[in-house]
Amino acid sequence: xxxxxxxxxxxxxxxxxxxxxxxxxxxxxxxxxxxxxxxxxxxxxxxxxxxxxxxxxxxxxxxxxxxxxxxxxxxxxxxxxxxxxxxxxxxxxxxxxxxxxxxxxxxxxxxxxxxxxxxxxxxxxxxxxxxxxxxxxxxxxxxxxxxxxxxxxxxxxxxxxxxxxxxxxxxxxxxxxxxxxxxxxxxxxxxxxxxxxxxxxxxxxxxxxxxxxxxxxxxxxxxxxxxxxxxxxxxxxxxxxxxxxxxxxxxxxxxxxxxxxxxxxxxxxxxxxxxxxxxxxxxxxxxxxxxxxxxxxxxxxxxxxxxxxxxxxxxxxxxxxxxxxxxxxxxxxxxxxxxxxxxxxxxxxxxxxxxxxxxxxxxxxxxxxxxxxxxxxxxxxxxxxxxxxxxxxxxxxxxxxxxxxxxxxxxxxxxx
Length: 416
Known about the structure:
The chain is α+β, with helices and mostly antiparallel strands. Among the domains are: 1-119; 207-354, no CATH class. It has 18 helices and 17 strands. The chain has a 4-stranded antiparallel β-sheet with strand order 15-16-12-17. The protein has a 3-stranded antiparallel β-sheet with strand order 2-6-3. The protein has a two-stranded antiparallel sheet with strand order 1-7. Helix 1 runs parallel beside helix 5. It starts with a strand and ends with a strand.
């Protein structure tokens, strides 16, 4: 007998085989939805090709999927593969709340499918990711209070309780685990399996620093701001080369401000010098958006506004008051951002995620695997979670790995 979590109140088919297969699919889709804030709150689409549908739902997957769509439980993206199969799916809003219930699956095909989607892929994780996944079993999530009605937090807590330590690396190398899905406001309940306290060791201004590193690499590579050229040059160096001395002065200054953790205060001071209101839409922690005059923005709001040009569609980024500062004070950075995002706006985010995971997972993580194998470790993108007593050592390891690429970040150690 296999027990799965499915959206609360969802109606399952009456026949035993259909019921089991559909439950497996709902459990898989619920896990996929839980992986990112955008999927949970904004309904970002989840890719699911025909091979995955067949694996989860069996050979009758077209009929079973269509039944779920007609029941208004699942939504399908309007574009198709091969004229028939959906490129992406998601739960309808009513079933995307995180509220769940347990169901039992008792057919052999469905149990096998559940085992497959719960399994990890060593080739996908690679040695350092596999080591981090293995380390998840050394952590314990205690009962930590979370806001009433936060069903996704309760769902994650149930997965911790059941030992459902799944992990996967995205196409750009980022490691997604149960910990990366755990809401920030509940991570305070995390300890080692023996109850030892943990600390968070993270790289300040990491995404902007990596933007500077990528721009410097592009300009030293015949001024070619190409995603693949930048990635291949940095990857092939394996940390053997520092930054070129021929990079533009404004790019060097950008990197210096990021290294010292002063890039956000710099942006805040510059925006406050505007004579006219600098209106910008900012997303709050609850996912809702608000329009503010950036001259009155808090440090946290300035940080979000500074990151928007890196990830948003370029047309919207151009209207961002902070991007206007970047255009004026850091033209080399602005030109690099525009060039990388020329074909698709997601290209820069993909590039930065690739660089971040290369350094934090494949270099820092691999160093821990080979030299500190018995030390517990977990990653949350640009941060590492370790025992409090190991925090200083981890900070030095991260600094050393970044220094191999010619940058010296500020690394902060704090509580979860």
